[in-house]
Amino acid sequence: MGRDDTSERPITDAVGDLRALLGARLLAYVAGATETRSVREWVEGVSVPPTAAVKRLRLALDVAQLIEQSQGASIVPTWFQGVSPFLGDRSPARAIREGDLEVTASAVREAAEAFAAA
């Protein structure tokens, strides 16, 4: 079974799925939000994440689903917080939050694919 096309899903659904995998705190960090209330409001449709956060969230969901399918849901938060040699010894969460996604998205995907294949 292939991964869902995360770019086509409503952002409220994508954020809800990602919150289930990462938890609200880690998700807020990855998205660049200052508090978990933002995550709840995004899931409920009360507010919409900024455009830059949407790009981070969709990338995060894409790689989270890859890790979940290959290693199980319980491993996803650990992978996001662990350092990766593919990311200059930064965690995927930090790379997604702080990196220029035009540059880091492929590295994050490569790191996830390598981990999933292990």
Give the topology, please.
Layout: H1 11-22, H2 24-31, H3 36-44, H4 51-71, H5 76-81, H6 92-98, H7 101-117
Helix pairs in contact: 1-2, 1-3, 1-4, 2-3, 2-6, 4-7
Structure write-up:
With 118 residues, this protein is an all-alpha fold. It has one domain (11-117). The chain is 68% helix and 0% strand. It contains 7 helices and no strands. The protein has helices spanning 11-22, 24-31, 36-44, 51-71, 76-81, 92-98, 101-117. Helix 1 packs across helix 2. The protein is globular, with a radius of gyration of 13 Å. The model has no long low-confidence stretch (mean pLDDT 93).
Sheet bearing the most strands, described? none
The shape, in one word, is: globular
Percent in strands? under 5%
What is the percent of helical residues? 55-70%
Which residue ranges are poorly predicted, with pLDDT under 50 across at least 5 consecutive positions? none
Determine Rg (CA atoms, Å). 13 Å
Judged by helices, strands and strand pairing, the structural class is: mainly alpha
Number of helical runs? 7
The tally of beta strands, per DSSP, is 0
Q: What does the average pLDDT come to?
A: 93
H/E element sequence: HHHHHHH
Number of domains: 1
Termini Cα gap? 19 Å
What descriptive keywords fit this protein?
118 residues, globular, mainly alpha
